[in-house]
Amino acid sequence: MLKIICIIALGLTTLVARSEFQIGENGRVLLYGNSFVERLQEHGLFEAAVQMAHREKNLEFRSLAWTGDEVGYRLRPERYVSHLRKLLDRWPANVVILGFGLNESFGGAALVDAFRRDLEGYLREMERRHPDAALIILSPIATEDLGHPYYPDVEQRNTEILAYVQVLREVSSQRGIGFVDLFAPSLEAYEKEEDPLTSNGIHLNDRGYTMIARHLIRELLGAGTYARLDLSRAEVVAREVQRKAQYVASVVRPVNAVLYFGVRGRAHEYDAEIPRFHAMVAQSDARIHAMLKDETLGFDPAPLTLPPLVERIPADLPSPEQMLKSFRVAEGYKVNLFASEEEFPELRNPEQIAFGPRGRLWVVTMPSFPGTIPGDIPHDKILILEDTDRDGKADKSTVFADNLTVPDGLAFYDDGVIVSHQPRLVFMRDRDGDGKADERTEVLRGIDVTDAHHGGMIAMGLMGHVIFCDGVFHRSQLETPHGVTRGVDATTYRLDLRRGRVEREYQTLTPNPWKVTWDRWGNLFQMYGDGFVQDSHAVPWSPFGVYHPFQRAISIAYGKGSAACVISSPHFPDEYQQGMASAVLLRKCFVSISKHRADGAYYKASDRLDLLSSPSDLFRPVDIAFGFDGAMYVSDFCTRIIGHAQNSMRDPRWDPHTGRVWRITHRAKPVVRDWPRLEGASPRELLSLLGHSQDVIRDHARRKLRHTPGVVKIVDSWLQEQERDEPILEGLWILHDHGQVRQALLERLMSSPDYRIRAAATHLVRFQEDQLRNTRDLLRRMAGDSHPRVRTEVVHVVSHLQQKDQSYAALLGQVDISGSKELQTILADASHGVSSGMGPEIPVLKKPEEGKLMHWLLKEEGQEERYFSHGGKGGSFGTMRSYVEAREKCRAVLSIRHSYVKVLLNGSPVISSANWWSSDWNVQVELRKGLNQIEVRYVRGRGARGYAPVYLYDPIGTGLQGLSMPGTEAGLRRLATRYDLNHGVKGSVIRVSAVPNQLAFFPREIRLSAGASVRISFQNPDLQIHNLVIIRPDSEEEVGLLADQMAQDPDAAQRAYVPDSDKVIWATPLVNGKGQVEQEFMVPEESGRYPFICTFPGHWRVMKGVLIVE
Fold first, then answer.
1. Are residues 533 and 590 in the same domain?
2. What pLDDT, on a 0 to 100 scale, did the predictor assign at position 447?
């Protein structure tokens, strides 16, 4: 099959007309696309060679490429278009190079036609945006077969990619646009080369980019020019191109964009700093042009700088000794200074801290906060502090990594660390043993940088997964071998390094997820910026754009902060073990410990004890870690001001010169003097440490075992010796990372007398589902567990598994929620279906006024429906409906600026926002031929404002052709009547449909006259089985719970899961996917609101509507 693909691919013709790359003096090349184009510029050889071929012309290359971009889906920070317009004004293009198709190809054959439509619309946008530029399209590369057991099938992927390449080729030919095929040459190179040319099958490595750049140069410039190029000299010039690519990326996607032009934009900061970014780009361009004209000039690695924007003079702050005297310390405890800027000048504004495998403290420093001043040298570092004589004070400091910009965390992995260096996760390791990172490898890119302090501290989980975060204002697009994962606002992600997969763990309206920590049983807790510690296993997965409410499943709420750490130390009191240590860094600043226990569905804190506090506003405890000696260590950011939303980024009160780490110990209990040596330990020795009393020791033992070849047999042998459940759980976690499952042991743990073990075993089912037998039976069994925490895990697991197979959702109806309001809430949170709550967004430079929908029918709370026109008076809460008629099916952009709104197109949600952090929505939708209903529901929320205008226009920002909008109230009402009749909302045949992938009905509201005789036609275009059951008023929960109980009955399906209850008025049979049924229905004589629900187990909580009898 692969040979066939090669033959087809090699038959594709490169259609680039080299005359189109003719470019004059001072010409400019703009590049758009996904991360392939980003990395092409970062590699540098392509631009360097083109520059050398036109060495006298002083060309400029500018990349607007963005990781994760597709022609029809391009997330950008809110209000980004104002910045983009200025960039485009500054950078008029002569040649535009476009690189798309790879990310779109994950849609498979089903979305090829949609890709063609989006591509043609995007090209129209490019032609309008750059009317005088020649366009050249690059095809995606092929996927390389790395023999990876968890990556998608390579032959299938390349077949899919080839279909998208063909569309690119055909559209290019039809429009007379240059086209360069990179698919065939990359596929051919993979066959010839012995060593891999990609890092993960889809992203080229350095050798791969050298190969593809040479091909691209040859195709664009011609074989003759290519033969005359000195490519060794081009590689020297490429080093300066690489540096310039960083500067261009910094101005295209500036760190803290929210303060330059976003929701919190400040014009004076934009005007002062953005020109400095451009000045850095210009400096680098000048270097490139000089190297072209003088071949004796080599690359100068000395940093490029600008005169200082502000003088950062060290403030007259209290010394460490003075601060120490100001602390209030809990009785029985004491505090000492572990390290400060006085002994170690590089210790400035320490953020995340963590203890490494040798018991040394790793410190992420951020003196650049809120962000490196453009033109300044990056000062952020990762330090290793060491207490060599174990006296409780650091006496050695090593700079592990420097020249970083706003790093916000690290996690130990293999023999190095993964560093969150926005917008990337980077693996760093020390190869020569000098304590300094001499190897840096990108792991992932696409994490947004719109707000520097909202990236969160990353962490390595007990099964080897990396947890990382987005805060509010962020719009991330993450490319993986499995496709693109996107996130908007407060989102926590899980990166499975072994499988190369990223998934959204949860999305919440609680802003700014920060520190992540685990207890001994694998429960994940996260601190949010508002000071809330969340029990994250009680926050189920939800579809993209569907957010959990503010403060969901909160165990601690002491005040704003970023630090949280599970207590695991023989030096601290027994009653606080596996409790929670946390810190508050705003207003009242303190460090506390609390007990932590799940008596119900989720963990809650009690018995808070404040260990350390200070009246000084200089004390800023941002992270906590427990050392190998059992002491608690606290990083102190040490600055007068802490919020860059409230203070200018260049406020002179920011102090980038100070930083402390404090150490808290118990007076009555000895610290640990001798701890295990992990370096060089045998697998058996490491396994013995999985029962250690300190979690930090366990964590490093797990990490080493995860990266020890041939350890599976040793672990199996060790497991046979274990009698207690806890070490068995540890062993199963290790085996899981090696791709191994031991079902008998897992089932044993599911019967453990300890609910925490049972819950942990249930949680493991989520990750081993594809290797286990009878997964549903296992979950069904645990759904009736005696402890609500275990049942919470079932909800959590099912919420994630339904992404793979929607039939798992039926298990939600089998979870015993009796007597637990908490569990009822968690179950409702898991019942949102799997379909996205947001349509694909694109940035549009200008909204056309002719696209504004002026005429609406408005239904406000407690009021009759009335006519409403924008410009008239209206409240803040209500539902508006309008209608448009399309001559043909077409793509359109639906736009609204509002924070608390849900927009539905023909019954399907396309915008869902209940978050005052975000308000500017521009989503691509598909209007069907004929009449379309747009429904806007305004919901309550903090700062909710009045009704906002809705716009419809084509993807290039012009009015839609062939679209009819109502121009008067009378015209609107005529369209509304037609729509209701067409969709069975009124009349003798009532049509109701299941919304695909949504667990929803459309329409959700039907009005009928009392006593009328009608026919109800129920259509199910979904993949799941559904029914439609009409019940008496206020009986929804009673009937729904009865239906859930039927899941245990083997004959329930024969009765269509319709309970035997006098509250049931009328019901359809079960309707399979793509099926339909039509039945007579006699409308009740009594007026009122009669719910209709789907009683398939688990569906009724969200799949419901109302029949209004009048």
1. yes
2. 95
Q: What is the pLDDT of residues 784-810, one digit of tens each?
A: 999 999 999 999 999 999 999 988 988
Calpha distance 667→335 (Å, rounded): 10
Say yes or no: 150 and 272 in one domain. yes
Indicate if 576 and 525 belong to the same structural domain: yes
Query: Where are the strands (E) in 387-500, listed by range?
Result: 396-404, 407-413, 416-421, 424-429, 439-445, 459-460, 465-470, 475-480, 483-488, 491-496
CA 485 – CA 500 distance, rounded (Å): 12
Other CB atoms closer than 10 Å to residue 477's CB: what's the count? 25
Given the DSSP bridges, would you call strands 361-365 and 350-355 parallel, antiparallel or unpaired?
A: antiparallel
Could you tell me the CATH number of the domain that includes residue 1014? 2.60.40.420
Integer Cα distance of 985 and 991 in angstroms: 7
**Within this chain, do residues 956 and 1005 fall inside the same structural domain, yes or no?**
no
Assess if residue 548 is contained within a domain. yes
Residues 627, 638 share a domain: yes
How does DSSP classify residue 217?
H
What residues of the chain score a pLDDT lower than 70?
1-20, 454-456, 871-876, 943, 984-987
Strand ranges (DSSP E) for 598-717? 604-614, 621-626, 632-636, 660-666
Q: Using an 8 Å Cβ cutoff, are 79 and 262 in contact?
A: yes
Determine the pLDDT at residue 16: 53
**Same-domain status, 239 and 168:** yes
Instruction: Please state at what angle helix 35-43 crosses helix 206-221, rounded to 10 degrees.
Output: 90
Give the CATH number of the domain where residue 869 resides: 2.60.120.380
User: What separation in angstroms does the CA of 881 have from each of 126, 798, 856?
Assistant: 34, 35, 5
Given a contact cutoff of 8 angstroms between Cβ atoms, the answer to whether 531 and 588 are in contact is no
Q: Which sign does the torsion angle of CA 276, 281, 282, 283 carry?
A: positive
Please write the tens of the pLDDT for every residue from 844-857.
Answer: 898 899 999 999 99
Q: Which sign, positive or negative, has the C-alpha torsion 926, 927, 932, 938?
A: positive
Is 747 exposed, middle or buried (CB count within 10 Å of its CB: 0-12, 13-18, 19+)? middle
The residue among 666, 692, 717 that closes a domain is: 666
Residue 659 lies in a domain: yes
Task: List pLDDT tens digits, range 132-141.
Answer: 999 999 999 9
The residue range of the domain holding 1080 is 983-1110
Structure tokens at 762: 């249930």
User: Given this model, what pLDDT does residue 283 score?
Assistant: 98
Total domains present in the chain: 6
Pairing verdict, β 95-99 and 28-33: parallel
End-to-end CA distance of the chain: 64
3-state DSSP assignment of residue 328:
strand
Q: Looking up tokens 């015209």, which residue turns up? A: 971
* Burial group, residue 324, by CB count within 10 angstroms (0-12, 13-18, 19+): middle
Chain CA centroid to CA 771, Å: 27
Q: Tell me how far the alpha carbon of residue 208 is from its chain's centroid.
A: 28
88 lies in the same domain as 200 = yes
Compute the C-alpha angle 523/525/527, nearest 5°: 175
Name residue, tokens 């572990």.
338
108, 160 Cβ separation under 8 angstroms: yes
Of the candidates 1013, 973, 1021, the residue with the CA atom closest to the CA atom of residue 994: 1021
The arrangement of strands across the sheet holding 60-63 comes to 60-63, 28-33, 95-99, 134-138, 178-180
Look up residue 870 and give its two tokens. Answer: 């924008």
pLDDT at 19: 40
Using an 8 Å Cβ cutoff, are 387 and 379 in contact? no
DSSP letter assigned to residue 670: P
If we measure between CA atoms, which residue out of 464, 338, 455, 466 comes closest to residue 395? Answer: 338
Contact 2/155 with Cβ under 8 angstroms?
A: yes
Last residue of a domain, one of 646, 666, 686: 666
Query: Do 162 and 60 have their domain in common?
Result: yes
Q: Find the CATH number of the domain harbouring 590.
A: 2.120.10.30
The helix/strand/coil state of 888 is coil
Q: Is residue 300 part of a domain?
A: no
